[in-house]
Design goal:
two-stranded antiparallel ribbon, five-stranded mixed sheet, elongated, single chain, 9 helices
Length: 204
């Protein structure tokens, strides 16, 4: 795995995390920077609420995708075709402006001798989404986590998301979505298989 795609373990994330009090002081500074008084009545509890929200929005740093994929099922009756989850919710924040980007993920893999519980694939998407991200990097990370852990014959990932750093600031273009894809193994080598995935996702 390349360094740019390497995800930190929960222990590494916790080791570099400031105290809750320091985070709340940072929020107060941002409120003042925005032009308001962090000590006025309506804002007194805002730092606490923001810090709590950040722990929820970025809880992916406390979780490991490999752990979610570690339990597999070998009794699959010889099934070796596409296993696909469609329209997995993506709720993430871009690392450039810390603004939300929201959309759907479509993830498929070709099992070898075992499969993983389908909810675990959705959890892997969620873990990477609940971190500061670029959509491009997250797409690759999801594919690599499945590839390295399950050793399938191939993985396909498609994410379609709207970025609020573009829709609520800057160029202010609403209803524009970004589509990213990543294919490995048979999905990368076999155009017919890749097209099947895209059609199943509604993009073919």
């Amino acid at each position: 795995m390349s360094e740019i795609l390497k995800w930190r373990s929960p222990d590494e994330a916790n080791a570099k995390r400031p105290s809750r009090e320091a985070a709340m002081e940072a929020v107060k500074t941002l409120i003042a920077w925005a032009g308001d008084d962090p000590d006025r009545e309506g804002l007194k509890d805002t730092p606490k609420r923001v810090v709590d929200a950040y722990r929820e929005w970025f809880r992916g740093y406390d979780e490991c995708p490999a752990d979610e994929l570690s339990r597999v099922f070998d009794d699959v009756g010889g099934y070796n075709d596409i296993v696909m989850l469609k329209q997995i919710d993506v709720e993430s924040h871009c690392e450039h402006h810390m603004a939300p980007f929201l959309g759907k993920a479509y993830v498929a893999y070709l099992p070898t001798e075992s499969v993983v519980g389908i909810s675990k694939i959705a959890r892997v998407v969620e873990i990477f989404a609940k971190r500061l991200q670029t959509q491009e990097t997250m797409t690759i990370q999801i594919a690599e986590a499945i590839e390295q852990t399950l050793k399938p014959r191939g993985v396909a990932v498609l994410i379609d998301a709207e970025h609020q750093c573009m829709s609520t600031r800057g160029v202010h273009h609403k209803d524009v979505t970004t589509v990213t894809t990543q294919f490995t193994g048979a999905f990368k080598d076999d155009a017919e298989l890749r097209n099947r995935f895209l059609k199943l996702a509604g993009y073919g």
